[in-house]
Automatic annotation (TrEMBL), chain A:
Organism: Neobacillus rhizosphaerae
First-tier enzyme category under EC: hydrolase
Name of protein: ComF operon protein 1
Superkingdom as given in the UniProt entry: Bacteria
SUPFAM superfamilies, A to Z: P-loop containing nucleoside triphosphate hydrolases (SSF52540)
TrEMBL record, chain B:
Family, as annotated: Belongs to the ComF/GntX family.
PANTHER family: DNA UTILIZATION PROTEIN YHGH
Signal peptide extent: none
InterPro entries from the UniProt entry: ComF/GntX_DNA_util-trans, PRTase-like, PRTase_dom
Gene3D superfamilies named among the record's database cross-references: 3.40.50.2020
Name of this protein: Ribose-phosphate pyrophosphokinase
Source organism per UniProt: Neobacillus rhizosphaerae
Residue stretches making up the Phosphoribosyltransferase domain: 187-237
């Protein structure tokens, strides 16, 4: 779009000679709020805390423009310049590789656009990002906000109190909770406190599965609160809600929206590799707001910051069932890849698997790469023909996981795709080739965390078969043992 | 400046691994726009095809074939209202799921740079079809403003050819929302708007996809009646 500036107001114009695409206007004036203006409540609901494109807004341009002129709507540039370098205002991309140009029919110029966040609607040099500047919609609170009836373990309770404090005081906090600690429940008191203070709160996670799993649990805990559940293609896109559960991708549409952002699984793909998602998370929170990070496996930098007191954190070192985490044992299995070329697998691995098949104990076996796993499958099927393998692009991934739950598959071979999120009640876990660089400290801690999850089967065997111990393996075992020690010290284990 | 710039695939963004060999060393390196795995997913239209619409015969049942025509073209050519307007359509690739996604990103998401991927293939074909007036299928004004560019114009420009934008659209409703019957019985959707004389000219229509052929046949009819000698069409997908 092109605009002219007249009397300190931007006016859309495609005809006048002195009009400019929005990104070329030096400073965008913001008209003062006219208190007597009758603003559109639907626009208010739609735009509060957002940054949307004109195409996302089901209202005509003249209505949007009139809200801008009366101070209720803001226009921001879609692409900013820092020196000579462009920055996408929505996703923060500044890598020139992700910018391209096209001859634009809207502004009639060669327009720069960002390919990084293209799937959320194209941002180009002539695209305004539209936001709300008027009063925030009022939410009516029920007499009783939380209907959650469960109880917290001692470890959960301590963390829960810290979360409440951080939310009240708009601070940052890392909740370092072991796999199976029950971290969702730890949030409930904090969410209740935020809602009671009329704060807008968002739980964000890199994965859609987690959004789908959390939504019914939170709706059940807060039945009278509107909950917006946002992921690619969800229907709540335009819903204004005090409580939002979203994939980190969806945060790209928010701007200074939340008083509290809870970021789940900060160490998970794609959040760790996509700078745009980290940018989105920061941009979605208000300048003064609380940020709660949740993870079982903070990266090395964060662990160091915790140790040196630079990062406020709290740990839940024990599972809710008060049994210690299974500690992985290391078993040397020689040059297993070389054996595999001759269609053989190490004898100690084979006997580990046979024992489980004979004892009817289900197990997950992790492989570093798909081809190695696929080559091993026929060998292992000689032991039990019902053994299956799964990887990220497997179209039957969900079915196979379901079959393990139904105990139709005795042993499942997998890549790191099942390292987190999936919980089976009673399994043993093996890693073959634990020396591979794909098995980082956090991957190994997550993998070990699959075992011993239910209170009926709190023990599980975790074995790392390796051709040479790595630092990552040692760090993973050290981390697990340290958590168990802390659990004993704090009286969280039986 | 990075002395060893790494090319990223325009489709999947992976780093393109250069093919190593004497030919790569001694010949002038052609620009790599997409990686080999993506290129392999583009299925070229090869083998015996319908004389008019370029549909590959090996993909349709024998009973839908009428000599060197497919059933659809046979029906068009049977109809005195429509016969003889479209001489031939050429399409480069099969409209498989992969290409469907790429084209959707190109025209609906507005990822203009993808025109360059197809331009590589378009250039060769357009050279073969020259000399001719190259006419892009137009968008309505509303849609053009929405998308920011016309995909057919983009294909021509990025292929290094000059589009002759002599058609404009009367109707603006989306084609893809109508059935074949509705499309065929539609009144004329285009109008010719030009000062150049079409008398005796060869025209090549450019579009992204050939689906039922209704779009290009409507345009062909109009241009033929305006005096053009022959009408062909060229699309990315079929």
């Amino acid at each position: 779009m092109r605009f002219i500036i007249k009397d300190e107001i931007l006016i859309p114009s495609n005809t006048l000679d002195d009009s400019l695409p929005i990104s070329q206007i030096p400073a965008i004036p913001q008209p003062p709020i006219q208190p007597n203006y009758l603003y559109n409540r639907e626009l208010q609901q739609l735009l509060t805390g957002k940054q949307l494109l004109l195409d996302d807004i089901p209202f005509p341009l003249n209505e949007i423009q009139s809200h801008y002129e009366n101070g209720y709507i803001t226009y921001r540039k879609g692409i900013n310049q820092s020196g000579k370098k462009p920055i996408c205002a929505r996703c923060g991309n500044k890598n020139l590789q992700w910018f391209e140009t096209y001859p634009c029919s809207c502004c009639g110029e060669t327009c720069l656009y960002c390919r990084k966040c293209l799937m959320m609607g194209r941002i180009s040099g002539c695209t305004p990002l539209i936001g709300w500047n008027g009063p925030v919609p009022d939410t009516i609170l029920p007499a009783k906000i939380s209907q959650w009836k469960g109880t917290l373990s001692k470890g959960q309770m301590e963390a829960s109190n810290r979360v409440v404090d951080a939310i009240r005081e708009n601070r940052e906090l890392l909740v370092w909770a072991v796999c199976g600690a029950g971290k969702t429940e730890v949030l409930f008191a904090g969410i209740e406190a935020a809602l009671a203070a009329k704060k807008r709160i968002c739980i964000a996670t890199p994965r859609t599965d987690v959004v789908l799993e959390l939504t019914p649990r939170l709706k059940a805990a807060f039945p009278e609160i509107t909950v917006a559940s946002l992921y690619g293609g969800s229907e709540d896109r335009h819903l204004f809600a005090p409580l939002t559960i979203a994939t980190t991708h969806q945060l790209l549409r928010f701007y200074h929206a939340f008083d509290t952002v809870i970021l789940d699984e900060v160490d998970a793909f794609p959040f760790t590799v996509e700078e745009s998602l980290q940018h989105a998370a920061l941009q979605a929170r208000k300048p003064s707001s609380a940020m709660i990070y949740l993870t079982a496996t903070p990266n090395e930098k964060w662990q160091r910051e915790c140790r040196t007191g630079k990062r406020p954190f709290t740990t839940i070192p024990a599972r809710f069932h008060r049994h210690p985490l299974p500690v992985p044992e290391f078993v040397w299995c020689g040059n297993w890849q070389k054996q595999l070329q001759k269609d053989k697998l190490p004898a100690n691995l084979l006997s580990w698997i046979k024992e489980r098949i004979l004892a009817n104990k289900q197990a997950l076996v992790f492989f570093p790469h798909i081809p190695l796993m696929e080559k091993s499958l026929p060998i292992l099927r000689l032991i039990a023909p019902t053994i299956e393998a799964v990887h990220a692009e497997d179209p039957e991934r969900k079915e196979k996981v379901q079959k393990v739950r139904a105990e139709e598959i005795p042993l499942l071979l997998t890549t790191t795709i099942l390292e987190r999120g999936v919980t089976f009640p009673n399994i043993d876990v093996a890693v073959i080739g634990a020396e591979d660089s794909i098995f980082t400290e956090s991957a190994l801690v997550q993998i070990a965390g699959r075992a011993g999850r239910s209170k009926d089967h709190p023990d599980g065997v975790v074995t790392f078969f390796h051709y040479g111990k790595t630092d990552e393996m040692l760090k993973a075992r050290r981390q697990i043992m340290a958590m168990n020690r802390e659990g004993i010290k704090r009286g969280l284990l039986d | 400046m990075n002395p060893f710039p790494q090319d990223h695939c325009l489709i999947c963004h992976e780093i393109i691994r250069p093919t190593i060999g004497w030919r790569a060393i001694f010949s002038i390196e052609t620009e790599h726009l997409i990686c080999q795995p993506c290129e392999r997913k583009l299925e070229r239209i090869e083998g015996e095809t319908c004389r008019i619409c370029c549909r590959p015969f090996h993909l349709i049942d024998e009973k839908f074939r009428k000599g060197d025509l497919c059933h659809d073209c046979f029906r068009w050519e049977e109809d005195v209202e429509w016969q003889g307007f479209l001489e031939k359509n050429t399409s480069l690739f099969l409209y498989n799921d992969f290409l469907k996604e790429v084209i959707a990103k190109f025209k609906f998401r507005g990822d203009y740079v993808l025109a360059k991927v197809f331009a590589q293939f378009f250039t060769k074909k357009l050279d073969q079809l020259a000399p001719a007036i190259l006419v892009p299928i137009p968008l309505s004004e509303v849609r053009l403003y929405e998308r920011g560019f016309n995909q057919a114009v983009a294909l021509l420009v990025e292929s290094g050819f000059v589009p002759s934008e002599i058609l404009t659209r009367i109707h603006s409703e989306k084609q893809s929302k109508k059935s074949r019957l509705e499309r065929i019985h539609l009144q004329q959707v285009f109008k010719v708007d030009t000062e150049i004389t079409l008398e005796g000219q060869r025209i090549v229509l450019i579009d992204d996809i050939y689906t039922t052929g209704s779009t290009v046949r409507h345009a062909a009819k109009l241009l033929k009646r305006a005096g053009a000698a022959s009408i062909q069409s060229l699309t990315i997908a079929r």
